[in-house]
Amino acid sequence: MIRFNLKLVLLLLCAAVVIVTLSLWTRCGEVVLANRGRKNSGQAAEWDTGNKKLPNGQDTYGGEVVEHGGNSDLQGYEEIECNINGEHSIGCRKEGGEIYLPFSFLQKYFEVYGKLATYDGYERFEWSHSYSKVYYPKGKYDPRGVFMYFENYNVEVRDRVKCVSATEGVPVSTQWESQGYYYPTQIAQFGLSHYSKNLTEPEPRRTVLEDAESDLLAHWVVPNGAALSRILDPRTGSHVVQFSSPDSVTSGISLKLDHVLDFVLSLNFVFTINSSFTVVLQSREKRDQIFHLHYICSDLLISAQDQYVYHGIGHCEHTQPWRRLTRDLVVDLHKGLAYQNKPKRKLSRSKLKVVGLTFRGSGQLDNLTLSTSEHLSQFYDAAQWLVLHQDASTGGWPNPVRRRVAPGMADLEPGWYSAMGQGHALSVLARAYHHSGGDTSYLHSALAGLRPFEVASSAGGVLARFLGHIPWYEEYPTQPASFVLNGFIYALLGLYDLGVVAPSASQQATQLFRQGMVSLKQLLLLYDTGSGTTYDLRHFMLGIAPNLARWDYHATHVNQLLLLATIDHDPLLTATAERWIGYMSGKKAPHN
Ligand SMILES: *[C@@H]1O[C@H](CO)[C@@H](O)[C@H](O)[C@H]1NC(C)=O
Ligand SMILES: *[C@@H]1O[C@H](CO)[C@@H](O)[C@H](O)[C@H]1NC(C)=O
Ligand SMILES: *[C@@H]1O[C@H](CO)[C@@H](O)[C@H](O)[C@H]1NC(C)=O
């Protein structure tokens, strides 16, 4: 959205008049001065609700300062004071019977958005009520398909993602704790976005740099004292590269490359202790700008200094099973720069190339590939993380941070479960179970993940009851309950997904889904303010002001209802969604 400059708006108003005289321009400047108190006309002026004192002791908005009246000009408009609800005084324009207010005022007062746009060679002013987007489902929701509209999500590039862990292959959040932590909801969203992108994006380009099956070996540079051979690996029955190099950071076996556009590196590997590899990236514009991405056998999450970025791939041991690593090199570079608070703008995908790869220490590797994307590998990294990090006794995925939802509600202590996190996890695991052709590790994890839905939020689960009766799955299992709407619907989607993908094994999921849909229809209209929606029911629970959903959350409510309406034809869902869409362009419920 574009911030409006008062002067610009006034100029726009001036321009509406056929002939603009020099004296009028001067006058515009004076109005800005008079209204802005101390601010000079050259500054970007923002409308300000503050009752600032002017040097002469008068209030800016007290009605004393604004000069108006008697400035009739040839075009027939004059300046006039606008008194707004007896609280503010601003400079307006009067033209015949019409009054014009500066948009910068309207923007803040009504929280609307506007910008000047030029197309077809002519300029116009565009006003919009909300900044968010409605996604109309293309067909009936399918739990084997795209999740909501998550193909548009790019979880790992968000600022609140510290990095993608090279040990786990999943994002690490800094949203509520700056040192970084694994946030199950975010990890599931990462998985769901990659699964959805796999279904919607064009086929990736893949370049196999080494698979030990062909003569690619010839390209390796093997320094004195290092060794490289192709062997048959008994564990996989496939040919792999075995390498070793002397203990020195400067040596190692390396590949010289000149690879553009495809920056997702993947490989299978087994390393001995203290081995590592490095990818060298170069700017295509400034050839002396070179970055080294080091992947080292360590528990380090991320570290960076100047052009060197380090990600830990965890402990390495030659007796370990084969591991697969998938890295988006550009994301890794950007996170390394962000780690040092350096800008990344000039280093987009199109401005970089991969110029080298070096392996140090010793070990085996195979299927070394550079691709446009490896969405399914990243999806399975998320699914695998969920299987490995579930609390076996409760079936929950713990959130390891303290969280304050609202004053008046007890803080959530580290270890709490979220119905949204549980539901998203079910959506990931249901898809992994389906896509893997029935790998039961995903199904068992998903079934265990249902347990917190049956346990009261006061007893460590996620189940609350509205007025003691109506069951609700809590995104934040607070005391008293908060009844967050969007997290509840995400939980419903997860339950639905599991019920559809594994119908006989998960009747419990279907049952929980049906029960939740009944609750949703009972409580849905409590969130409707007649001009928007509330995020939760804290106003009812705590006797305080409602927590109005900002437009992107409101749009999420709408998108969720539209999606649910494809699997449940109750007219309440569509009628409510339609009305809520109207609120996004300023419509309101009728009044008496
Ligand atoms: C999606 O996954 C399939 C394997 O199920 C793969 O063949 C295809 O290339 C992938 N497409 C994209 C865009 O990731
Ligand atoms: C691995 O590196 C650590 C730290 O540099 C060192 O203390 C250790 O001796 C190394 N281990 C081996 C087996 O080389
Ligand atoms: C490399 O990929 C091939 C084809 O997918 C697979 O059969 C082989 O097992 C992989 N190598 C390793 C070491 O996992």
From TrEMBL:
<keyword id="KW-0812">Transmembrane</keyword>
<keyword id="KW-0472">Membrane</keyword>
<comment type="pathway">
    <text>Glycan metabolism; heparan sulfate biosynthesis.</text>
</comment>
<dbReference type="Pfam" id="PF06662">
    <property type="entry name" value="C5-epim_C"/>
</dbReference>
<feature type="domain" description="D-glucuronyl C5-epimerase C-terminal">
    <location>
        <begin position="390"/>
        <end position="581"/>
    </location>
</feature>
<feature type="region of interest" description="Disordered">
    <location>
        <begin position="42"/>
        <end position="62"/>
    </location>
</feature>
<dbReference type="GO" id="GO:0015012">
    <property type="term" value="P:heparan sulfate proteoglycan biosynthetic process"/>
</dbReference>
<feature type="domain" description="D-glucuronyl C5-epimerase beta-sandwich">
    <location>
        <begin position="238"/>
        <end position="362"/>
    </location>
</feature>
<keyword id="KW-0732">Signal</keyword>
<dbReference type="Pfam" id="PF21174">
    <property type="entry name" value="Glce_b_sandwich"/>
</dbReference>
<protein>
    <recommendedName>
        <fullName>heparosan-N-sulfate-glucuronate 5-epimerase</fullName>
        <ecNumber>5.1.3.17</ecNumber>
    </recommendedName>
</protein>
<feature type="signal peptide">
    <location>
        <begin position="1"/>
        <end position="23"/>
    </location>
</feature>
<dbReference type="GO" id="GO:0030210">
    <property type="term" value="P:heparin proteoglycan biosynthetic process"/>
</dbReference>
<dbReference type="InterPro" id="IPR010598">
    <property type="entry name" value="C5-epim_C"/>
</dbReference>
<dbReference type="GO" id="GO:0047464">
    <property type="term" value="F:heparosan-N-sulfate-glucuronate 5-epimerase activity"/>
</dbReference>
<comment type="pathway">
    <text>Glycan metabolism; heparin biosynthesis.</text>
</comment>
<dbReference type="GO" id="GO:0005794">
    <property type="term" value="C:Golgi apparatus"/>
</dbReference>
<keyword id="KW-1133">Transmembrane helix</keyword>
<keyword id="KW-0735">Signal-anchor</keyword>
<dbReference type="InterPro" id="IPR059154">
    <property type="entry name" value="Glce_b_sandwich"/>
</dbReference>
<dbReference type="InterPro" id="IPR039721">
    <property type="entry name" value="C5-epimerase"/>
</dbReference>
<keyword id="KW-0413">Isomerase</keyword>
<comment type="similarity">
    <text>Belongs to the D-glucuronyl C5-epimerase family.</text>
</comment>
